[in-house]
C-alpha cells in the first residue's frame, strides 16, 4: 500500500462549538454535511481534520486523540491560544529531541502537540528519527 494522504477524524460532542474552537486556533471551516451538520472538516494550509459528531473514535480523558502539528512559530500559536482562552496544557518548551513544543487541549479531550524544529530554522525533525 502507498498512502497519498492522511486525514484524522475527531469524535466531537458539539459540532458547532468544535468548529468555533478551531477557528479560535486560526483554522477555517472547509465544509459541513447534514442539517443540522454532524460531519465536516476544518483546515489550515494544506492540512485538514474531519470532525464527526458522537461517532468514529473516542474522546475525553485518555481516549482523546493526540495529533502533532508542525508550524513556523510555536510562540505565536501560544499567544493566539492565550488570547482566545484555549486550554494550554504544556507551554512552549525547548525539548531535548530538537523541537520547541506546546500542547493545547480541545474541549473533547484531544491534544494537539504544536511544534517547530530548533536546529535548522524551523525544519520539522521527528523525535523518532
- What is the chains' assembly state? single chain
- The structural domain count equals 1
Instruction: Provide the low-confidence segments as ranges.
Output: 121-129
Count helical runs. Answer: 2
Structure explained in plain terms:
The chain is globular and about 45 Å long. Residues 121-129 have low confidence and may be disordered. The protein has one domain: 2,3-Dihydroxybiphenyl 1,2-Dioxygenase, domain 1, CATH 3.10.180. It contains 2 helices and 8 strands, in the order E-H-E-E-E-E-H-E-E-E. It has helices at residues 15-25, 74-84, and strands spanning 9-12, 28-34, 37-44, 47-53, 66-70, 87-94, 99-105, 111-117.
Structure summary:
This protein is α/β, with parallel strands linked by helices and 129 residues long. The chain contains two helices and eight strands, in the order E-H-E-E-E-E-H-E-E-E. It has helices spanning 15-25, 74-84; strands at 9-12, 28-34, 37-44, 47-53, 66-70, 87-94, 99-105, 111-117.
Write the SSE topology.
Layout: E1 9-12, H1 15-25, E2 28-34, E3 37-44, E4 47-53, E5 66-70, H2 74-84, E6 87-94, E7 99-105, E8 111-117
Characteristic terms for this protein:
8 strands, globular, 129 residues, 4-stranded mixed sheet, alpha/beta, 2,3-Dihydroxybiphenyl 1,2-Dioxygenase, domain 1
Amino acid at each position: 500500500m502507498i498512502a497519498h494522504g492522511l486525514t484524522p477524524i475527531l469524535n466531537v460532542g458539539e459540532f458547532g462549538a468544535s468548529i468555533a474552537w478551531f477557528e479560535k486556533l486560526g483554522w477555517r471551516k472547509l465544509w459541513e454535511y447534514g442539517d443540522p451538520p454532524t460531519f465536516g472538516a476544518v483546515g489550515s494550509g494544506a492540512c485538514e481534520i474531519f470532525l464527526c459528531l458522537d461517532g468514529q473514535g473516542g474522546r475525553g480523558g485518555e481516549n482523546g486523540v493526540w495529533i502533532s502539528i508542525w508550524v513556523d512559530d510555536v510562540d505565536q500559536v501560544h499567544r493566539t491560544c492565550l488570547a482566545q482562552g484555549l486550554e494550554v496544557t504544556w507551554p512552549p518548551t525547548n525539548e531535548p529531541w530538537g523541537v520547541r513544543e506546546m500542547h493545547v487541549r480541545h474541549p473533547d479531550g484531544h491534544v494537539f502537540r504544536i511544534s517547530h524544529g530548533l536546529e535548522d530554522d524551523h525544519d520539522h525533525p521527528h523525535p523518532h528519527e
